[in-house]
Every structure is written in structure tokens, then in C-alpha cells.
Amino acid sequence: MKINPYLIHSKPYFIAALFARRDALQAEGRDVISLVMGDPIEPTYPGVQQATLKALEATPVSQYPKTEGSLAYRQAIADWAQRNYGVTLDPKSEIVSANGSKEAIFHLSFLFDWSQGQEIWIPSMAYPVYEGAAHIQGIPLRKLPLSEATGFLPDLDAITPEQWQRCQLFWLNSPHNPTTAIAGRGYFEKLLGLAEHYGFVVCSDECYNELYYSPEPPVSALEFDSQQLIVLRSLSKRSHMTGYRMGAIISRNRELIRLITKMRAPMGVGTPDFIQAGGIAAWNDDAHPKAFAALYKARRDRLVSALEAKGFRVFGAEAGFYLWFSHPDYSQSDPLYEAFIDTGLLLAPGHCFGEDGEGYLRMVYCITDAVTDEVVKRIGQLQLP
Length: 385
What we know:
Radius of gyration: 21 Å
Number of domains: 2
Strand content: 5-15%
Structural class: alpha/beta
Mean pLDDT: 95
Number of helices: 13
CATH architecture of the largest domain: 3-Layer(aba) Sandwich
CATH topology of the largest domain: Aspartate Aminotransferase, domain 2
Largest sheet: 7 strands, mixed
Strand order of the largest sheet: 2-8-7-6-5-3-4
Number of strands: 13
CATH class of the largest domain: Alpha Beta
């Protein structure tokens, strides 16, 4: 028996290692607050549960769902895109249902032919599924450096024409996890221009776009009419539906959508109809993401103030529910990580996301107000130089 070598030799997901550290500390009797995983704990938008239960009660027989999702679900996404971005999407030919964005991210690379040595490109610090999907499938991977000097976005000007010719799939995550970096309109225009010229596909992962704190929302790739573009949207963070597994794959390239649907048909990834009913309720309501964002902003403001009072430098933090920060007296992440452990706060060292994260920490703040109070208190108790 021969097993995929990546599964044998790759390191466990770093979140698991951090949780093991948490469990060990708690076994010692330590009071530890975990600020590691971005899984909202506030209640899901109530309309979701109501719609899901109603659909269950009205469905005495549960049958196979459509791979592409119900037309009603895809129409709800098209209506949402029209309201929020002023774009017109054909629900029948430009939208496919997804179980959140995680499985869609993993499966999209099956769409392409990699036999000529083409590469998947990802930011050097990124959601681990981008890299895991490439390695499990044996696809060449290129990591693009990130730094605060470039706003934690890949420097498009630093890439040569010869390198661009090897790119087939370019992953862009904006707002970015872990750094919170946001790509502006000019960045999207430049990247999509390069995609048109060199023939690669840009996959824009936008799961945090509706949790924003600036006056204007982050730019979405949905605003650009490009045949080289696939957009992933998710209800997980927007509507606190991580357990429902609901999202969408969107592209104006109808041939890509047709092939994506064909590719996904044998995978068994169709979302149950009653779950789609909950998703329809979520897409149809634009008020609850704004309410969630207001809650997060209040917590963000308190945490940023507490960190800055201790001399930390917080980057961005204009969307999502992560803080990405450093301290001028520390060049390495681990000593900072241990300082937070000493006061009972478990954070993710920046190097867990890639070597370009060295010197930074990531703090999750999808927590309650009461926990925020305690975190602020403990930040004030940090022992630093």
C-alpha cells in the first residue's frame, strides 16, 4: 500500500498544536483564554434557523440535492449581489452553491490541467487550505512574499514575465487572514490585467468582506467583469453560520461555471435543500452583518487601545475579527507568545502562518463582551521590557 507522502510527512495543522498547548496548560490548573480560532460564538441570524426548521417540516422525504444548488438559493445570491454591488448575475449560469468556501477552495484546483508544470500561487501567509490542496494533489506551488512594506499584499511588480507565464491559479484573500490587509481597486485592476495578459485565473476568497469597520466596504472582485475571475463568498463569518457550511462560487465566465458544476457532480457536495433554505434567509437580509460588524468594532476598539497602551503596533484591523500586531522590542514571535501565555492568553504566533509572519502575533476577537473585558484586563498585566 502506498499512501500520499504529503499526508505522512506534513506537519499537523498548527491550530491543533495550539489547542494541545491550551489543554496542557488547563490540565495544570491554568486559566487560559483561547484567542486562536475564528469561529463566531454569537448566535446565528435567527431567520436562518426559522427558515431551516420550516423547510424541514415541509419536507417529509429528503432527496438528493442539486450539485449546483437550488435555483432559489442561487437567485438569493444574485439578488444580494445586485443590492450590495450593483452587479447583475445570472443565477442559472454564473453561480454554484458551495459548502462554505473551504471545500470549494480545496476542489477548485481539480478544474485545471497541471501536466505542463503550471503553478498555484498563494500569499506566503495564507489560509492553510490553499497550500494543502496543492500538496495533496502534487501541484507545484509558489508562495509570494508578504511584508508590512507592501501592505501585506503580494508585490505584483516584483514578478517577472517568465514567472507570470507559469501561474495558472492565483489565490487572493482580501480582507486577508491573518494580516487583515485589504486590496484596493487599483490592485484588483492591475492583477486582473495581468491575468488577462498571461491567461491565469484569479480566485478571490472574500469571506470577511461584509464585516468591515471603515466608512466604505472593501472592494470585491464581483465589481469587475473579467473572464479570468472566480469569486468565493461564504455565510460562515457574515451570518455566523460556520456549522451550516454555506457559500457560493461565482464567475461571469459561464464556461468555467459549467465545468465546475460538471466536476463537482460526482463529488457528492450538494448542500441539503433545508440548509439552503436557511442560506436563502441569510442572503436576503443585509442588516444582520452590519449588526455583527458593529459588535466586533466595539470589541476591536477596546482591544486595540489596550495593546497600543502596552506599546504594540496593530496593522490594519479594518475588517474581519483578527488583530495582527507586533512590538518594537521583539523581533521574534515566540517570546511575545509566551508573554501572553504568562497572563493566560493563548494567541497564534505569526510564524505559524509562514516565515514572513515572524515577529507578529494574531489575536481573534469573535468573543463575548465579558471575555473582551477579561482580555483587556490581562493585556494590561503583560510583563514587557
